[in-house]
Specification:
This protein is an alpha+beta fold. It folds into two domains: about 120 residues, Roll (DNA Polymerase III, Chain A, domain 2); about 110 residues, DNA Polymerase III, Chain A, domain 2 (Roll). It has five helices and 16 strands. The strands form two sheets. It has an eleven-stranded antiparallel sheet. Strands 11-10-9-12-16 form a five-stranded antiparallel sheet. The longest helix has 15 residues.
Length: about 250
């Protein structure tokens, strides 16, 4: 996989993380690992690209992601002649990449060394596993309902959505004072049941669900332990987001 293609895919998916703490790229012959987390320790992401990344020869940290995203979205670097070349660290310089095209545009983007990114962040391992009793492929209807009711309830200071199972459905609920609440079926006829009601930050969840329209597939899982995962297949790689929630 070309470096420019990999950076575009990675930037698109880590940009969905609010309060991004950092991004780590781990090259391998048969793919490239990506790790990221937020500054509040409420979300971590592990990803695996399907192919190795051309020229990426060492583990690095991706800094200034918003700037890189702006560069990648600019017309000059979305053209067929755009390319990116990785330069490993030396005794004089940290690792960096040069993005350029045949029309005189270029951008030098500095990476963090492996030792530095390891100081900036440590992403928890997903091994061992949290049991996700309910797994669904979110529908446009369910996502649109979640967007609509979050926007309405946010006006009343409610930033969280509760997931539960009821009558065979995965339901979402927004609740306020004076026993006011809105409940709707996010997904009908699901397999599995939740032993507890799980509360999650709605805005962060919706940012990731926004990838549904441009991805090969998205799977959402809810755990009675108090968490939500989203597995996003971009076509170039598989991105796994895990959000910490709380029980209600």
């Amino acid at each position: 996989m070309k470096l420019l293609t990999a950076l575009e895919d990675i930037s698109k998916h880590v940009s969905k993380i609010q309060h991004l703490a950092g991004v780590k790229l781990i090259p391998a012959a048969n793919g490239c690992g990506v790790e990221a987390k937020d500054t509040k320790n409420l979300l971590c992401m592990h990803a695996q690209l399907n192919e190795g990344v051309e020229g990426l020869t060492e583990t690095v940290g991706l800094g200034d992601e918003p700037l890189l995203r702006s560069v990648l979205k600019s017309p000059g670097f979305r053209s067929a002649d755009a390319k990116a070349i990785f330069h490993p660290k030396s005794t004089s310089y940290p690792p960096f990449a040069v993005l350029s095209n045949d029309r005189g545009q270029d951008h030098m983007h500095q990476f963090m060394t492996e030792s530095y990114i390891d100081q900036v962040m440590k992403v928890p391992s997903l091994r061992g596993g949290i049991p996700f009793e309910v797994l669904v492929q979110p529908t446009k209807e369910g996502i649109d309902l979640l967007k609509y009711w979050f926007a309405e309830w946010q006006e009343y200071g409610e930033d969280y959505v509760d997931f539960a199972t009821a009558n065979g459905d995965l339901v979402c609920e927004f609740a306020g004072a004076l026993r006011q609440r809105t409940r709707f079926a996010f997904q009908r006829r699901v397999t599995g049941t939740l032993g507890s009601c799980v509360r999650i930050e709605a805005e962060q969840l919706l940012r990731i669900l926004d990838l549904t329209s441009t991805s090969k597939s998205v799977v959402l899982g809810v755990s009675s332990v108090g968490g939500v995962k989203l597995e996003v297949d971009s076509g170039a790689g598989l991105y796994r987001y895990v959000m910490a929630g709380r029980l209600r």
